[in-house]
Amino acid sequence: MAQAAAIKQDIFAWEGTDKKGKKVKGESNASNPAMVKADLRRQGIKPIKVRKKSTLFASAAKRKILPKDIAIFTRQLSTMMGAGVPLVQSFEIIGRGHENPAMQELIMNIKADVESGGTLADTLRKHPLYFDELVCNLVAAGEQAGILEGLLDKIATYKEKTEAMKAKIKKALTYPIAVVVVAFIVTAILLIFVVPTFQDLFDSFGAELPAFTQMVIHLSEWMQSNWWVVIIGVSGTIYGFNQGKKRSPKFAHTLDRLALKAPVFGEIVTKAIIARFARTMSTMFAAGVPLVEAMESVAGASGNQVYKEGILEMRDNVATGQQLQLSMQQTGLFPNMVVQMVAIGEESGSLDGMLAKVADFYEEEVDNAVDNLSSLMEPIIMAILGILVGGLIVAMYLPIFKMGSVV
């Protein structure tokens, strides 16, 4: 209970005077006003007024903690320690300077735990949503070996490269998905609101409509009566896929296998997974984490159920004395170039360096593939827009053209 109370902190606004009698004000994170006053006195500030800030607007201003925030935090912590700033003071400086109140609260909670005597690795393990097992294991190895500063730098580099690669893939996929979604929304609006207007006009003609126009009109009538079915169906499908992937390992395995075999996208996904595998393994091995123990964290960081199972199988084989390159070859998931690079690394005793080169190569491959994908998607998007929107326009104007030819 005492530890829980130490972790619970609020934001206090304070006013006071410094040693020269000049009026100063600011904000502090603490459990109660007395702690704020004591902290201010230690800094040579005479407190005049301390009040707890309202959480009504603070909670509204909170934004979600993103992996990018964790990467920046790790880099800042590494830089602070490299400059000789004590760990607890580093948390204080980083926390107070952060713009995201949620991230600020997380950093201050970590600071409170470390101040109470806990190790940094154990403290981070209390926040599994933000710090995965890989990061916690690396921090623990750094604390035990007395090289925390160096390992924080490696973690920061690993996080930055991983997030940069994710951002590039998301950027390449966001544009085409957004355009297709907008195209379907525009099509739905045309079917529900615009086509009925043309339908009333065609009814006044009293002539037989072309088959294509009749099909569009029937589709419009169905959409007007069952638009809610489309919304529920699309939302339900997306929700069902997400829940199925979370709750059913077999379903997740099937989806991930299909993602690897998908045209164009499958190649990018595979290269991204191999780059992540190599980067994670290199970072763990360079930190002195035993290979078998490292592979368990690497499997979790792969992001694909097929590769996760393959890496865990590799771990079991390595644990029995088999070479890493041989166990990789047996899974059939890694290209020959990767296997050969790992074999050279094992023979020369520079496995971490070779894996880092593999990661660099495949990260560059992902960059090139994403650029090519962006160029390839533009004509495909134009074709989809032409079929959806252009098809509706042609269907509506066909009867008018037909009447014009008769006249």
Would you kindly provide a written description of the structure presented here, covering whatever features stand out?
The chain is mostly helical. The chain starts with a helix and ends with a helix. Strands 2-1-3 form a 3-stranded antiparallel beta sheet, covered by helices on one side. The protein is built from 17 helices and 3 strands. Helix 5 packs antiparallel against helix 6 and helix 11 packs across helix 12. The protein is flat. A hairpin with a 5-residue loop joins strand 1 and strand 2. The longest helix is centred in the middle third of the chain and has 58 residues.
Keywords:
disordered N terminus, 407 residues, three-stranded antiparallel sheet, mainly alpha
Which helices and strands, and how do they pair?
Elements: H1 2-7, E1 10-17, E2 23-30, H2 33-42, E3 46-52, H3 55-61, H4 67-82, H5 87-97, H6 101-115, H7 120-125, H8 133-145, H9 148-205, H10 211-247, H11 249-261, H12 265-286, H13 291-301, H14 305-319, H15 324-331, H16 336-348, H17 351-406
Antiparallel strand pairs: 1-2, 1-3
Strand content: 5-15%
Q: Mean pLDDT, as a whole number? A: 82
Can you tell me the residue ranges where pLDDT is under 50 for at least 5 consecutive residues? Answer: 1-7, 55-61
* Distance, first to last CA: 89 Å
- The largest sheet has its strands arranged as 2-1-3
Helix content: over 70%
Main sheet attributes: strand count, strand direction, barrel closure:
3 strands, antiparallel
